[in-house]
Amino acid sequence: MDKFEQRVRAVGLSEDVTYRFPTYGGWHAALGDPCALWPHAPATPGTKMQGWGCALQCPGGAGAGGCQVPDKMTQPRLCLLQGFVTLQMSFTSSMLTGRWYSIGLASNSNWFKEKRHLMKMCTTIISSTAEGNLEVTSTYPKGDQCVTRNSLYSKTEQPGRFSYTSPRWGSKHNIHVVETNYDEYALVATQISKGTGSSTMVLLYSRTKELSPERLEMFTQFSREQGLADDEILILPRTDKCMADAA
């Protein structure tokens, strides 16, 4: 039984309401709702969503006739990213708040390739707004200076999934909290899209400046499952620079 099947069974869904999408086409074509089957469109092999699986509780199951998805899906659902990894179950945004250290970063963007040799650990402070959005403040070393960047992650209808649009670059960020235990680590996957194309980014956060080898391996393996090569995966060098600035 693979990870997809394990997660589906864990939430009580049976085989007759589980459907696997074929693996071809770009998975970023499904940006928006990760279970964004078009209204009333059957889940057939023509649905181009690479590496995605959806478990839908709907009349008639998800057999050869396809599963009709209503305009407003009210049935329980479980959607998985490429690599069949779910969003954090029972996600609670308030428990994610506080100080985090960036331990790992993986990306297939040109920006990452150009700046990889300069990157070091940085500090991120997360706070929750009354509306359930996340205010994210990251402080990192850049040359001889400490740079602070503020972002507002807007919540979506799916707990653990947020959206953000960069005011500077206009890029759209589809952010998923994949896994966290809140008091030790958090694994976050982001799909970034703009006019010139799209990229994938994976971040590993820690409450402390060190994580166990098992957590680091989890991050590396998950990044590979998202299609990232080993030279696109980086355990960030530890530094004390700019850490005190992130109060």
From TrEMBL:
Q: Can you say where in the cell this protein is located?
A: Cytoplasm, Perinuclear region; Golgi apparatus; Nucleus membrane; Rough endoplasmic reticulum
The protein's matches in InterPro entries, at most eight in alphabetical order, are given as:
Calycin, Lipocalin, Lipocln_cytosolic_FA-bd_dom
Keywords annotated in UniProt: Cytoplasm, Disulfide bond, Endoplasmic reticulum, Fatty acid biosynthesis, Fatty acid metabolism, Glycoprotein, Golgi apparatus, Isomerase, Lipid biosynthesis, Lipid metabolism, Mast cell degranulation, Membrane, Nucleus, Prostaglandin biosynthesis, Prostaglandin metabolism, Secreted, Signal, Transport
Which GO cellular component terms, listed alphabetically, does the Swiss-Prot or TrEMBL entry include? extracellular space; Golgi apparatus; nuclear membrane; perinuclear region of cytoplasm; rough endoplasmic reticulum
Segments forming domain Lipocalin/cytosolic fatty-acid binding = 97-240
Q: What is its EC number?
A: 5.3.99.2
Which GO molecular function entries does the Swiss-Prot or TrEMBL record give?
prostaglandin-D synthase activity; small molecule binding
User: Which chemical reaction does it catalyze?
Assistant: prostaglandin H2 = prostaglandin D2
Q: What is its main location?
A: cytoplasm
Top enzyme class of this protein? isomerase
Q: Name one GO biological process term.
A: prostaglandin biosynthetic process
Q: List the SUPFAM superfamilies hit by this protein, alphabetically.
A: Lipocalins
A Pfam entry, by short name? Lipocalin
Similarity section: Belongs to the calycin superfamily. Lipocalin family.
What is the protein's quaternary organization?
Monomer.
Protein known as: Prostaglandin-H2 D-isomerase
